[in-house]
Amino acid sequence: MSEAAGVIHDIGYQRYAGPRLGRGYVFTSLYVHGLRTAFGLGRSAKAKIFPWFVLGVVFLTGVILAAVRTQIPDAGVTYTAFADMMAWLVVFFVAVVAPELVSRDLRAGVLPLYFSRPLRRSDYAYAKLAALATAVWLLLGAPQIVMFLIAAFSVDSMSQFWTEVGDVGPGLLYAAMWASVFAGIGLLVASLTGKRAFAAGGIVGVFLMTTPIVGVVSVMPSETMNDLALLFSPASLVFGVGVWMFGSPDGNDDIGPFGPLYLAVMIGLVAGCVALLQARYRKVAST
Predict the structure, then answer these.
(1) Tell me: the pLDDT tens digits for 15-63?
(2) What is the DSSP secondary-structure string of the chain?
(3) In terms of Cα–Cα distance, which of 30, 17, 13 is closest to 118?
(4) Chain Cα centroid distance, residue 196
């Protein structure tokens, strides 16, 4: 008995002859889509409620603080202090947005479709991470720019204008620090589960459960341990780096001589989150 030979039939489908946009275009598209998703753009009205509520709060706070700065220059309202004030609100923003960016893809099982394109596993993780970090930076940085513009049009001399320029730069850099830490931790936790509620709870839990440790260490009898207390929570860690680089809002030195250590730990934390995120998606793609 002879084996039947396989036959490929041409049923008239037209082949694609256009340009192959490649990996870079896919990465950019994924990044832009992630950034739009963070603010509910292109989605239902329900998906826009929380991110735009947070946007409204941070911008309103920025305008109020800018008005205070113009009337009371010595009130201690700085650009970096604004980022500190908004930090916990941003935690909840990340807890909502990070699962939308990655947990939905895990639950829907669409990752094999992403990786069937000229998109590396690392590209997917980096695009999602960049989208979340950009969204967080916009939340903390854009109101600072509004504050700067209000202050710039209220000054009486060029020297005051350049003082504002010198103040807003550190504030925007500080916002980038918050964004890198929040995005790294938030996306890593969200990538561990396809259930958005579990992911959101895990992200908030990371920040809430580590905060009491700071309180305990800060009241120990050792002065060195008191100076190192802020290392034990992601939010206080960034605050400690800000104290070292830009000064404490209340004028107190809360970290002693350990500023470089705080910076090194923050960089190591972000690098570790990125490395674990890459390992996570290598594992996801192989299962």
Answers:
(1) 767 677 778 888 898 999 999 999 998 888 888 899 999 999 999 999 9
(2) -PPPPP------PPPP-S---HHHHHHHHHHHHHHHHHTTTTS-HHHHHHHHHHHHHHHHHHHHHHHHHHH-TTS---HHHHHHHHHHHHHHHHHHHHIIIIIHHHHHT-HHHHHTSS--HHHHHHHHHHHHHHHHHHHHHHHHHHHHHHHHTT-SSHHHHHHHHHHHHHHHHHHHHHHHHHHHHHHHHHTT-S-HHHHHHHHHHHHHHHHHHHHHHHTSS-HHHHHHGGGGSHHHHHHHHHHHHH--TTS--SSTT-HHHHHHHHHHHHHHHHHHHHHHHHHHHH-
(3) 30
(4) 17
**pTM of structure:** 0.88
Angle CA 35–269–39, to nearest 5 = 15
- What one-letter code names the amino acid at 225? M
Q: pLDDT tens digits, residue range 103-158?
A: 888 888 888 777 776 778 888 899 999 999 999 999 999 999 999 998 888 877 78
User: CA distances (Å), 63 to each of 68, 136, 150, 164, in order?
Assistant: 9, 18, 8, 15
